[in-house]
Amino acid sequence: MTSIESTVLLPARPSTAGTLDARAVSAWFGDRKVLDRVSLTMPQGQVTALIGPSGCGKSTFLRILNRMHELIPGAALAGEVLLDGTDVYAPERRLTSARRDIGMVFQKPNPFPAMSIYDNVVAGLKLTGIRASRPEKDHLVEECLGKAGLWREVQDRLRQPGGALSGGQQQRLCIARSLAVRPKVLLMDEPCSALDPTSTRRIEQTIRELAETVTIVIVTHNMQQAQRVSDRCAFFLAEQGTPGAIVEHGPTGAMFATPADPRTSDYVNGRFG
Ligand SMILES: Nc1ncnc2c1ncn2[C@@H]1O[C@H](COP(=O)(O)OP(=O)(O)OP(=O)(O)O)[C@@H](O)[C@H]1O
C-alpha cells in the first residue's frame, strides 16, 4: 500500500468544465461528405443539445469532438476542435489525453458486465495511465457514483457485477465510469433512448446536476428532453443529398419559442423528422 501511495498520480483537481469550440468542421466517409463546415461553441458548464432528423450528422459531429471519428476506416475530417483554446487534434496531443478530457457515454449502456460495480468505476484510470492508491479509489468510487446519482442504490453491493444492475442503473454506472478520469466535457449520444421513462428522468436529473462541473453535449431525438436538460441547442439538417450543417443554434428557450428559421420551427414542432 505504501509503495503505491508513493507513486500516486491521480490528480487532486476537482472536475472543471471546459469550453469546446468546433470551427468549420467537415467530415467524410470515403468520398461522401456528411458534414459541411459546422461551427459551434459549447460553453463551459452548460448543456448543449444537438437535435435534428436521423442521418444529419449529429453522432458524427459528436465523435469528432473526442477523436473517435478518426478510428473509423475511410473516415476523414477537416476543421478544428479547440478545448479551452487548445487544439484537440494537435500532433503533440496524445489521443488518450483528448479522451480523458472529453469523455463519452453511449446510447446503449455498456458497463463491463462481469466486472464489479467498483471496478467498473475505476476501469478508466488504468486505460488513461492514472495510478491511484486504494483509499483514493474508494473515495473516487463514492464520489463518482454519488455524482451519477447511483451511490445510495449500490453502496452495499459494490462487489456485485455491473451487469446485474437495471438498464438505467447501468447507464448511471457508465456515467460514473466516465467521471472517474475527471473529464472537462462529457459527450452523450442519446443516453436515454434504451431506457424507460423513470430511468430517463433520473438520468436527466443527473445531467442537470453534472452540468455544474462538466460541460455536456448531448444528442437527443426527444424534443421534450432537449427542453428539459439543455441550456443551448443546435439544429442540424442534411437537406436532400447535401451534407449535414447547422441551420440554427442558440439558447434552448429561444430555439423552441421563437426560432429564426422556418425549418427549425417545423422540426421542433414535430412537422418533420
Ligand atoms: N461508419 C460509417 N460509414 C459510412 N457512413 C456512415 C458511417 N456512420 C455514419 N455514416 C453516414 O453519415 C451520415 C451521418 O450519420 P450520423 O450517424 O452522424 O447521423 P445522425 O444525425 O447521428 O443520425 P441518427 O440520429 O440516426 O443517429 C449518414 O448518412 C450515415 O449514413
UniProtKB/TrEMBL annotation:
ABC transporter domain boundaries: 20-268
The UniProt record lists the keyword Translocase: yes
Name of this chain's protein: Phosphate ABC transporter ATP-binding protein
GO molecular function, a single term: ATP binding
The keyword Transport is assigned to this record: yes
Pfam families: ABC_tran
Species lineage: Bacteria, Bacillati, Actinomycetota, Actinomycetes, Kitasatosporales
PANTHER family associated with the record: ABC TRANSPORTER I FAMILY MEMBER 17
Keyword entries, A-Z: ATP-binding, Nucleotide-binding, Translocase, Transport
Tree of life domain: Bacteria
